Amino acid sequence: MGLKTVYDHAHDQETLTPIYLSGNDPLVNILQHTLSTNGVDKEGGSYIQSMKDFKYLAHGVTVPLHHIIVFDEAQRAWDTDTKEPGETEATLLLRLGDRIAEKYGKVTILCLIGDGQAIHRYEETGMPLWVDALFNRSDWNAYVPDTYHQLFSGVPNLHVNPNFMLTTSIRHDFINVSPWVEAILELNMDKARKSYQDMLSKGFQCWRTWDSQKLPGFVSYVQQNYPGDHTGIVVSSHLRHTPGMFGPQYRGSYVKATEAYQWYNEESYKLTRGASEFLIQGIELEFPIVSFIGDFYIQNGKWVVDPKATNPGLKDLRKVLENVYRVLLTRSRKGMLLYFPRESKEWKLEETYRWFAGMMGIE
Question: Of 1, 134, 227, 262, which has fewest CB within 10 angstroms of its CB?
């Protein structure tokens, strides 16, 4: 929807153009290349930019030539700025909007929001960041869906529109996997079973394994039965991977943002590198290999955090890990392989594996 908004208004005025911003650099890399020709990102770069780069215009005197600013995953706006302590990405974006409105008469900032997606330090505050940025800003009109009415109730010039809540999932061939994922994170077996069966009845496919030797076979199955579809390992970044967890050819899950397009189109199916939550958050694979590696697992009927899965700077590691697996479990288009690697005799993922097996109706 964000890209369509940019496209529809690309030629509204001679001097101004819309811009699509994202704090997800791998997504920016993929979109820039996908929307360009000849394998370069110059054309896509004229409409798709990194929020990290764009926001620094706020520190200068330049007036951006954009009458519409689309900010993807706006709930992940950073609550700090390295150049201006006390500023946030929300306040910086409004400051840029002020300049545009002062010179050209008006500006629209379209914030695309997906709850439960905070996976990085600085972005755990969420939508209250925008409430703070709009506090006492009577020169802005704020439009929100019903679900944010109470949160934004103190914002001047607030307008509530129920049409701003998009309730149809198109990522999974119009199959809504969110109830299933939420039931998993709640460990609500009955709800998860019901949602899972509903998904299967609509064409969704799901498998599970603990054996790394079966991963290449899954890739071959996808290539033979669904030519052109994407598959590959998606995995949390919060715990070092035990050697052999994904096979002898595996080299880790670190993929640079500038390599995202290459990984997505040329490398993912080789299983030589996986995509962490940071790379995969803004894109999808038709059949990802969703990997549970032991940083967040079920023990005695509860989700627990492995003490080795530390990450300095996070306010709530457990909540972030919950969001990480929410992201990993919602990156598929048609189906997924759930992978629970058995890396040692003491298999700490056994209860997690058994829970999923029971949810899927497998003895």
Answer: 227
